[in-house]
Known about the structure:
Strand order of the largest sheet: 5-4-1-6-10-7-11
CATH topology of the largest domain: Spore Coat Polysaccharide Biosynthesis Protein SpsA, Chain A
Strand content: 15-25%
Distance between the termini: 21 Å
CATH class of the largest domain: Alpha Beta
Number of domains: 2
Number of strands: 19
Helix content: 25-40%
Number of helices: 12
CATH architecture of the largest domain: Alpha-Beta Complex
Amino acid sequence: xxxxxxxxxxxxxxxxxxxxxxxxxxxxxxxxxxxxxxxxxxxxxxxxxxxxxxxxxxxxxxxxxxxxxxxxxxxxxxxxxxxxxxxxxxxxxxxxxxxxxxxxxxxxxxxxxxxxxxxxxxxxxxxxxxxxxxxxxxxxxxxxxxxxxxxxxxxxxxxxxxxxxxxxxxxxxxxxxxxxxxxxxxxxxxxxxxxxxxxxxxxxxxxxxxxxxxxxxxxxxxxxxxxxxxxxxxxxxxxxxxxxxxxxxxxxxxxxxxxxxxxxxxxxxxxxxxxxxxxxxxxxxxxxxxxxxxxxxxxxxxxxxxxxxxxxxxxxxxxxxxxxxxxxxxxxxxxxxxxxxxxxxxxxxxxxxxxxxxxxxxxxxxxxxxxxxxxxxxxxxxxxxxxxxxxxxxx
Length: 395
C-alpha cells in the first residue's frame, strides 16, 4: 500500500492533557496501548506518512513520538476546556506551514475513538484527494427512534411519527457521527474555519467500532471490547521478555509436603521456548513476589536471572531496564494477577495468560490462548521469536 506524502495529506490528532471527565484520558490504555498511540497507529496504517499530535502535555508528546508521530506544541490558550478542535487544527496548519508543509488534505483524528478503522480513513482521504467531496466524516448507519424532552420534561418524537412507526425495512436509515475522524480539503477548511463545508460526505463505518470515550464507564467498555476488536498480532516485536512466575510458569497451585516443602507444576515446552529466546539473543527475566527455592531452581534450570521477593514489580522492571539499557517500550511482560498491573502499565507489550485475573486481561495488549503452566510462556516466546526472525529476514 502506497503512503500519502505530506504535501498531499497530514494527519493531526489534537490531544490535550487536561481532560476533566477521565483525567489523563489520552494516555489511558486500551488493549495495552495509550489512546493517543492507537490513533497514531491507525493513521500510519491508513497510509498517512506525516502524523502529528497537537498537545500541551509532555507525557502525551512522549507517547506520540514513541508511536511514530511528530509533535506540535499547543499553546495554553488553545488547550483549555473551551478551546475548539478547529482552533487546534488551524494552529497545527500554521505550524506545518512554518515548516514548509502545505498539505492538500487534512485528516483530523480523535484519540478518544479507540477502534478507528484504517481502511475507512484511507477511503475518506482518497475521496477528498479525488475531489469527490470537500469534507468527509465517519458515521454509522442507525435506525434508532430518537426522542427529546420538552420544557415540561415530556417526550417528543424527533425523527419519526410516534403514532405510525414503520418496520425497520420500511424506514430510511439515519447516520450517526462517530467523532473518530474527519478528512478536510485544507484550503476550504482555512476559508470556513469549520470542519463541515462545501460538499460533505459520509464514510460509513461499523457500529461496533463507533465507541467514543467520554467517561470512565466508556473507557471500561473499550477495554472489554479490545480483545474482540483488535487484530491478534502475528508477532511481538520486543528486545526482552519479563515474566511473573506463579500463575505464568506454573498453574498457580503448589503441593506442600509434611515438612513444608513446596513443589509446583511447570511446562517443559515453556523451557524450550525460553531456550530458543536465549539462543536468539533475547534476554529473559523472571520476577517473583515469593522467596522460594523452587523459583530459584526453575530459573537456574532455564539459565535466566530471577528477582525474588519483589513487592513493587514496576520499580523492579524500571531498575532492570535502566541497568541493562533496555527501553521499557521494547519489553514484553507476561503476568496473571493484580500485583502485575503496575508492571504491565509501563511496558510496550503487556501480556496476560489465558486464565489471568479479569483486570489483567483488560490491561493486556495481548491475551494468550494458553494458561499459566500450560505453555503460556512458550506461546509468548514463539511470538517474540516470530518478530526476531522477521527482522533477520528483512536484513
